Structure formats: structure tokens, C-alpha cells
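Handoff note, outgoing to incoming analyst
You'll be picking up this chain. Sequence as last confirmed:
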Amino acid sequence: MASYRSGPTVPADIITYRLGCKLVYVKPADNYEQALDFAQKEFPEELANVSRNRISFTIMANMNGERKVVRISESAWVAAVARLLRGEVIDVQVRPLAPSADSKELPPQYLDVPHIHVCPHHPLSAPSSPRNRSRDISPTPSSKSDKGRSWFGKA
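Most recent structure output, in case you need it:
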């Protein structure tokens, strides 16, 4: 929880950065860019491949008797950090990626129709064309043109 000083400001010689459950003492950064440098240096596994514009800093502040999370903007960095007490915690957070027009999620694709292996010597596996569809084998035994044929070949 941020506890601001009301008296003369004496800069804290050490503050705490917290990312998730990890804590590390750091020297208060002179500016926002240096704060980003410190965060990426102290949490390399988590922040090495994260764009700097996605990293933000927050503190817990008492506002009207309620604890609230307050993000520290770049323009307010110097004033906000100058008022923190020694060892005060600044949470380092990674903002989610903003969806862009280029990264619209595509709808799910239908499964491809499997390619059927065509056996040239078997009449059931020959592909039909519009020209010879009338001569396709029918599974009904009552068909006059297919008398004597069964599902398993010639009868």
C-alpha cells in the first residue's frame, strides 16, 4: 500500500519491484525509461521478450479510506516515486496485447475432405464423371442394369 509523505520529501534510497510473486529491491529510477530498464534487468525471464510499451507500474494507494490500484504514468513517475517510503512496493505488470486489425482471429476452418485412394481395377473405386453417372453401380438389387452384381463384386 502506498504511504505518501506529507512532510518534507526525502527520496527513498530503495524501493521494491514486484512481478507476480517475485520481489526485488531496486534503487528508485530517475525516470520512467530507467524504471523500464530496471524491470527488464531484474525480471529477465518474464520481461526479456516483452515490448516496453506493454510494461506498466502500479501502486496501492488509499483513496477515501479504500485501497485502490493506481498506475504510474510516465509523466508522473518522478513525482510519484519521490513520495514513496523506503521499501515501498511498485507492482510491475504486463499489459495484454491489444488486438490489431492485422491480427483478427480467423474463423475455424472446416476439415479437408480426405483424398480417396482410387484403385483402377476395382469398379467401385473408379471416380464417377457426369458422363458415366448413369452407369454407376447402384446398391439396390432391383436395378435392372446391375442384375447379378453385389456389394462384393460379381455374383
